Amino acid sequence: MEDLVVHPEGINGWSGPYLSSLKQDPWRGTYVFNSPGPEHHKYEIVCFGADRKEGGTGDDEDIYSWQLD
């Protein structure tokens, strides 16, 4: 996720920073950044909910950026 703020060494074509700083999710957990993302998505950002674990329901339910498309 830090690659969104600081240019990673050896990566050409980076035109960030894309964020001014790393943010925490509402439960003070760390967002997960994956690139490429699943299927046809170039990337995904994931919040694992209140329990900070994959899966769950209610406040523990995971939120994926591509669900918001």
Can you give me a brief rundown of this structure?
Helices cover 0% and strands 13% of the residues. It has 69 residues and is mainly β.
Q: What order do the strands of the largest sheet run in, or round the barrel if closed?
A: 1-2-3
**What does the largest sheet look like?**
3 strands, antiparallel
Estimate nothing, just give the exact number of structural domains: 1
- Average pLDDT rating: 90
The percentage of residues in β strands lies in 5-15%
Detail the topology: elements first, then pairings.
Layout: E1 32-34, E2 44-47, E3 63-64
Antiparallel strand pairs: 1-2, 2-3
Verbal overview:
This protein is an all-beta fold. It has one domain (1-69). The chain is 0% helix and 13% strand. A three-stranded antiparallel sheet has the order 1-2-3, with no helix packed on it. The mean pLDDT is 90.
Which key phrases capture this entry?
69 residues, three-stranded antiparallel beta sheet, 0% helix
